[in-house]
Amino acid sequence: MASLTMPDPAELDRLDVSRGSLWEANAWRPLFARLRAEEPVSFCPQSAFGPYWSITRYDDIVAVEGDAQTYSSSWEHGGIVIFDMKDTGVQLRMFIAMDDPEHAEKRKAIAPAVTPTAMAALAGAIRQRTADLLDTLPEGEVFDWVHTVSIPLTTAMIATLFDFPWDERHKLAPWSDWCAKIDIGPDPVLNAEREGHIFEMAARFRELYDERKAQPVRPDLLSMMAHADSFGEMDEQRFIGAIALLLVGGNDTTRNSMSGMIERITLFPEAWAQVKADPARLAGGAATETIRLQTPIAHMRRTATRDVELHGKTIRKGDKVVLWYNSGNRDETVFPDADRWDPERENSRRHLSFGYGIHRCLGARLAELQLTTLIEEMAKRDMDVKLAGEIERLASCFTNGYEHIPVTMSRSHD
């Protein structure tokens, strides 16, 4: 982790933790630890995204998420990310960026795709796909875990959920990446490039959506949307937003957790040895601990609908309130020795990586299933993975993830 100069206590309340350089350098942890301890509700008056409040303790994040009347998610107030949606080239009016009842109606329409029954139906294919990929990995050669393992596995899953044409699945990861680039700000060149990719995505999904609408309902996400009254005749911004939400939610989060797991097992080899020795007992805990520590979506944002006081600070109506999940997931009062990857941690499922309350991630079970399966199949092969170079991280305070993780791998041949 890169070194940095810690702020003077007098400057802590004005600290800007949204800077992409902090995340690219993996230098954010000590700053958030200071905020949790000394200024759990702090106001940054100036940043690339404008002024914002930082909420950094677990209980405060839960309290804000649980009060949807006071803290709105609606795109009409700015949306769910630190950068105001109205300032982007294309507005992704995701239903997660809506308040009830519209949010609840759309969520209900696609919920059948991720029920326990649906997950059980997918489990066999997930395991086979994971096993086949792991068996192709080269031993003793350097390869990029992100692009060789994480992206192929998550892209295949998204293609399955949407019943997207298999021979076009390579398009899904780049589209998801561009949808998630909320940190680029008002740069006209980057926004124009982003628009191009997003409209290309929308055009292809619209073709498939219209095809599903003309056919009997099927158990895939596009068909469920096409036949749900709550989606109806969506305008283009809402359609793009719905697709982007499902794409980013299903791709980026799982992909970066699968990549983050490699960082965990290289930092905590003794814990990984325990998981390999007893995967039936520990694989699930290893997965939830990875999701907690990785926090693949680092923040969500709300907007105050009225003046409200929190920790003696007055948040004004219209103020931007950023909930730092990455910080809540390392809150020492909830997760003792919070930086440690502990597959036996009893409360790791209390993590905030999937959000809390009415906006909790619909695909949480699926993400856990995919990651647990990967861990089980790696343990079955007695796989060890070691870093073979510098990790390259995203310069993003939203998608807490990786560009490249060079590794070498060994496995048992028993």
Automatic annotation (TrEMBL):
**Superkingdom to which the source organism belongs:** Bacteria
Pfam families per record: p450 (PF00067)
Q: Which GO terms describe its molecular function?
A: heme binding; iron ion binding; monooxygenase activity; oxidoreductase activity, acting on paired donors, with incorporation or reduction of molecular oxygen
Q: Name the keywords, alphabetized.
A: Heme, Iron, Metal-binding, Monooxygenase, Oxidoreductase
Is this entry keyworded Heme? yes
Query: What InterPro entries would the database entry show?
Result: Cyt_P450, Cyt_P450_B, Cyt_P450_CS, Cyt_P450_sf
Family from the record: Belongs to the cytochrome P450 family.
From the Swiss-Prot or TrEMBL record, give the protein name.
Answer: Cytochrome P450
Q: Which organism is it from?
A: Novosphingobium colocasiae
